[in-house]
Amino acid sequence: MSVSVPQGLATVVGSSHVITDPDILAGCSTDHTGRYRGRASALVRPGSADQVAAVLRLCRDAGAHVTVQGGRTSLVAGTVPENDDVLLSTERLCAVGDVDTVERRIGVGAGATLAAVQRAATFAGLVFGVDLSARDTATVGGMASTNAGGLRTVRYGNMSEQIVGLDVALPDGSVLRRHSLVRHDNSGYDLPALFVGAEGTLGVITAVDLRLYPAASHRVTAVCGFDDLEALVDAGRVLRDVEGIAALELIDGRAVALSAEHLGVGAPVAGDWLLLVELAADWDQVGRLGDLLAGVALRGSPAVGIDVAARQRLWRTRESLAEVLGVYGPPLKFDVSLPLSAIGGFARDAVALVRGLVDDALPVLFGHVGEGNLHLNVLRCPLDAEPVLYTAMMDLIAGSGGNVSSEHGVGSRKRPYLGMSREAADIATMRTIKAALDPTGYLNAAVLFD
User: Fold this and answer.
1) Which of 44, 112, 131, 174 is the 20 to 30 A CA-CA neighbour of 291?
2) Which family does it belong to (predicted)?
């Protein structure tokens, strides 16, 4: 990179917001899991959409690659630079606007954390439809760029269903602003949909307008134990379609055992597999939940939480997994989407595959069973075993009728496998769009396309 690029960046954002310290850059060039590392020459922190656009224009003209970073919670190396890049951080774009309680929406900067959005919504008596365990660090811009799902997807859907407007700095240095107060705007192309899920390859999302929802006055949470995974999936198939379903989470008993050992968070019920179910509505749901579970092949009675403290204790069973997965070092993560009918077979075959290739590895499975969006984590997997295991697992996922990515995106880690989920004409069309908006390919060049 030309020595003038950092100096040029400083004229755009101020010298205090351009960092070239090697130690800081090294830390920012390592992904969330700790498994993947890249290299960067500068970190820039613009404070507005216009500054983002100016940074992009400067880098494009200088021939410098740009990698966009939010909360850096990507699990597929989506924020790891590969070309001595300029890292563009959205951390200063963190404004949280006032809640519009009439239209039930809020405008926020791309660098605002999920937790900040949730606090604003709760204070206004509303809820935001997406929730993640990484809520304190995950940013709205990153969640939009990957079309994140999470713990409430079964009720509210992914990020694409929450976004009603956005600002995007385009690779040519212009800013697209698409906002409308009407609920349905069919005036021309649905451009926001083009950028949501594009993983920053088409532009940098700088702000979003988010849909909010009424808060339910009654909630009930239960954790149910199962001896058989197929029985749990059958229950999930029924429960995902019932009115008032708010969460439906599969939890591997092996993961719960780790949480009990290392965090003191024991399982509230016995079972090789656990299912967390939550109902939310404006009337009491306890009796209804009991009726729904009456015909389910459970192992013993479920643990039920009605008041806030009891429900939080049950949710701790699920949320503790994020804390315990790194107990043996950085885990190898597979984020997959499967037909519900394939989950049982995939789980068996995946365990056999992992243990056949890495003797000491520990596979654990959890995720959003209502949609078939699951997270397979392989603990105690050495780096030198990853290439063979990763390719074999991708083959297994594709052979099971699954998608190689469900809600974390493709990033750079899964780009060689995009063809397993998209036909050649599909990929060619995506490349055409990329070339139209970013002819030199300098923006998030390591992401999505091989």
Assistant:
1) 131
2) Belongs to the FAD-binding oxidoreductase/transferase type 4 family.
Residues 207 and 122 in one domain: yes
- Which amino acid is residue 33, in one-letter code? T
Angle at 106 between CA 185 and CA 218, to 5 degrees: 105
- Read off the CATH number of the domain in which 202 is found: 3.30.465.10
Please report the beta strands in 47-90, taking only residues with DSSP state E, as ranges in sequence order.
66-69, 85-89
* 150 lies in some domain: yes
The tens digit of pLDDT for each residue in 368-411 reads 999 999 999 999 999 889 899 999 999 999 999 998 777 777 87
CA 74 – CA 58 distance, rounded (Å): 26
DSSP single-letter state for residue 16: G
Measure CA 445 to chain center: 20
Structure confidence at residue 77 as a pLDDT band (50, 70, 90): low
Task: Say which CATH number the domain at 30 has.
Answer: 3.30.43.10
Residue with tokens 């043996």: 328
Task: Kindly state whether residue 53 falls inside one of the protein's structural domains.
Answer: yes
Residue finishing a domain among 214, 230, 265: 214
Enclosing domain of residue 119: 105-214
Q: Are 106 and 97 in contact (CB under 8 A)?
A: yes
In this structure, is residue 100 part of a structural domain?
A: no
Query: Is the domain of 319 the same as that of 237?
Result: yes
Please tell me whether residues 192 and 114 are part of one structural domain. Answer: yes
Q: How many domains does the chain have?
A: 4
User: What confidence category does residue 75 fall into, taking pLDDT thresholds of 50, 70 and 90?
Assistant: low
In this predicted model, what pLDDT tens digit does every residue of 24-63 receive, in sequence order?
A: 998 888 877 777 788 899 999 999 999 999 999 999 999 9
pLDDT per residue as tens digits for the range 228-246: 999 999 999 999 999 999 9
Is the pLDDT at 441 greater than 50? The verdict is yes
Q: Which of 34, 59, 89 is the last residue of a domain?
A: 89
Give the whole-angstrom CA distance, residue 44 versus residue 256: 41
What's the CATH code of the domain at 364?
3.30.70.2740
Residue 227 has pLDDT above 90, yes or no: yes
Rounded Cα distance between 76 and 226, Å, is: 31
Distance from C-alpha of 204 to C-alpha of 208, rounded to nearest angstrom? 11
CA distance 365 to 249: 11
